[in-house]
UniProtKB/TrEMBL annotation:
Record keywords, A-Z: Heme, Iron, Membrane, Metal-binding, Monooxygenase, Oxidoreductase, Signal, Transmembrane, Transmembrane helix
Cofactor(s) annotated in UniProt: heme
Organism of this sequence: Anisodus tanguticus
Gene3D superfamilies according to UniProt: Cytochrome P450
GO cellular component: membrane
Membrane topology, record value: Single-pass membrane protein
Protein name per Swiss-Prot or TrEMBL: Cytochrome P450
GO molecular function term, any single one: heme binding
Pfam entry (one): p450
Any Gene Ontology biological process: brassinosteroid biosynthetic process
Length: 451
């Protein structure tokens, strides 16, 4: 395969005709080191910026704090997010992920309030009770942590967005449709019956029909809830009495963005919880110190399971453990962008329209910032880090808007887990699934016992 003319100056190889380097990309993707082994080998040969042809795209890979700053701050709109065709089709054209510039800014502003710490306070009791209930069911059993964490995080977000009850027929339908949608993202882009992409679009349409009926009920006043959808319909729905006219959203925009939050928030939080259990189990000293923090909280209230909002927002060691987990696991191993104009990076000329992948794993394993980077050590976060050296939740205008929700769910779950249970892994294989979000292939099977 030969480069487009302008790409000739960029170091690297494009691999075989048609497939390029996709085969080695996919096979190294699911190895324990993940995409890092693909990238690291090439960085050693070509340097921090190199070209390749993977998954049907000419792509320039880049890494380092300098590249992060340019790509993530997106100064002067030089890049946009680069979703695969299947993702674009399933999430819809008005999804936050497909907006740029002012319309992106505006949508972010509209969802910021319900996802702020204050906005999340009302879901705290639900999350707390669900964590206790979920863990009660783990006790004395073998569980696949990834599956269980997925059920937990989906129930949380379903309740938060549309007040979905954690059990029952509606929850089952929601879960089934969501799983099909999620599975269609990494599929081939053939929209014919029988393919994962086709099933994904159909499941998306069923999910939208469910949302349409809920939106109608909210609008007619037949049902009034205190959830994310209610606050959007009330303030920003097309016939909302409150709010500015410029801030109105069509029903299509509401649905596309509810689905976007579900998709962006589910696998990521599920993966984070699973990696956390794994790293804690492999690092008993960290687990012990974490237990101390949580036992101190419990000791203050004579053994009841109550956890308060102020306690959950005051868990300094837990916050560091979560950050270290996100550094080690690098759940989103690269951030994908498209050049919106010509520009230069690390001496390489980038042309408008090229796909750019920021390699985050190398940033998280930079030994000048994180000495002995393969060690799980939450004390790395004792002092503030240099900008763009930790990108667990990204940075700049596209930084994760779900950060507060993710930290809340994880902290509450961890509190009940470490205070009351211990767990032993049944398989220590570190391989990961070949999906965009890094998740353990074996789903992390463990036995759980009460302490
Ligand atoms: C531990 C859990 C999570 C992790 C590690 C995580 C990580 C990230 C990262 C790294 C980005 C930036 C990607 C980029 O720049 O290309 C991002 C964006 C995003 N996240 Fe999260 N996330 C988590 C949970 C959530 C939750 C719970 C939600 C929703 C409720 C959410 C919604 C989003 C959305 C909508 C974006 C796109 C923002 C935009 O394009 O403006 N995430 N997330």
């Amino acid at each position: 395969r030969t480069s487009p003319k302008e790409m000739e100056a960029i170091p690297g190889t494009l691999g075989w005709p048609i497939v390029g380097e996709s085969l080695s990309f996919i096979s190294e993707f699911s190895s324990p080191a993940g995409i890092y082994s693909f990238i690291n080998k090439r960085q050693k040969m070509y340097g921090k910026v190199f070209k390749s042809y993977v998954l049907g795209r000419y792509t320039v890979f880049m890494t380092g704090r300098e590249a992060s700053k340019i790509l993530l701050t997106g100064k002067d709109g030089i890049v946009s997010l680069n979703l695969f065709y299947t993702g674009q089709q399933v999430l819809g054209p008005t999804s936050l992920l497909q907006q740029t510039g002012d319309s992106h800014k505006r949508l972010r502003r509209l969802i910021a309030e319900p996802l702020s710490l204050d906005g999340l306070k009302k879901y705290f009791q639900f999350i707390n009770s669900l964590a206790i209930e979920t863990l009660d069911q783990w006790s004395g059993r073998e569980v696949l942590v990834l599956e269980e964490a997925s059920t937990f995080t989906l129930k949380v977000i379903g309740n938060m967005i549309i007040s979905l009850e954690p059990t029952g027929e509606e929850q089952e339908k929601f879960r089934t449709n969501f799983k099909i949608i999620s599975g269609s993202f990494a599929s081939l882009p053939f929209k014919v019956p029988g393919t994962a992409f086709y099933r994904g679009i159909q499941a998306r349409d069923r999910m939208y029909a469910m949302l349409d009926s809920i939106i109608d009920q909210r609008r007619s006043g037949k049902s009034v809830k205190q959830d994310f959808l209610q606050s959007l319909v009330k303030k920003h729905g097309k016939d909302a009495l409150e709010g500015d006219d410029d801030d109105k959203l069509t029903d299509k925009q509401l649905k596309d963005n509810i689905l976007t939050l579900l998709v962006a928030g589910h696998d990521t939080t599920t993966a984070a919880l699973t990696w956390l259990l794994k790293y804690l189990q492999e690092n008993p000293a960290v687990l012990e110190r974490l237990r101390e923090e949580h036992r101190e909280i419990q000791a203050r209230k004579q053994g009841t399971l109550d956890l308060t909002w102020s306690e959950v927002n005051n868990m300094p060691y837990t916050v560091k453990v979560i950050s270290e987990t996100l550094r080690m696991a690098t759940i989103l191993p690269w951030f994908s962008r498209k050049a919106a104009q010509d520009f230069e990076i690390e001496g390489c000329k980038i042309k408008k329209g090229w796909s750019l992948n920021l390699d985050v794993v190398s940033i998280h394993r930079d030994p000048t910032i994180f000495p002995n980077p393969v060690k799980f050590d939450p004390s790395r976060f004792d002092e503030p880090l240099k900008p763009f050296s930790f990108l667990g939740f990204g940075s700049g205008p596209r930084m994760c808007p779900g950060i507060n929700l993710a930290k809340l769910e994880i902290s509450v779950f961890l509190h009940h887990l470490v205070c009351r249970y211990k767990w032993t892994p049944l398989d220590t294989d570190d391989s990961v699934q070949p999906t965009l979000v890094r998740m353990l292939k074996n789903k992390y099977p463990v036995t759980v016992e009460a302490l």
